[in-house]
Fold this protein.
Amino acid sequence: MSSPLPSDALLKHLDERCREAQEEVDRLTSEIAGLTDRLAGAGQLLTRLELTRQTLVEIAGQHTAPEPAAAALPPAYQDVLAAITRAGEGLRAKEVCLALGLDLQHKTVESIRSKLKRLVGRDLLIEPEPGLFVLNRRRN
């Protein structure tokens, strides 16, 4: 018993579909090659720009002391700034401790007070009255 052979029309249809699929593969391969070239060029540009920026910062750093940005601060200091920002008004050291969920033991409050004073020294906070710390709006 022999199996039925596919019709000529079916074989022609499959040949046409194969040709279309191959054309799509070729088109996509060409697009990928073009995108790969563009990606390489963009990566090279990014590298050059980053090196240029780093060089400029290093040169500027030799002449002036760079001002510390809030993002460059240790996480504990960023948390303190975030608590004052969320409050929208001035806070005292104990209030910062409460906002951060810290205990109110003397050493904890004094540690936060010390951080607040350092942030004033970095011109990120101001102390309009003793013990009250507010964001320095001229800076932020």
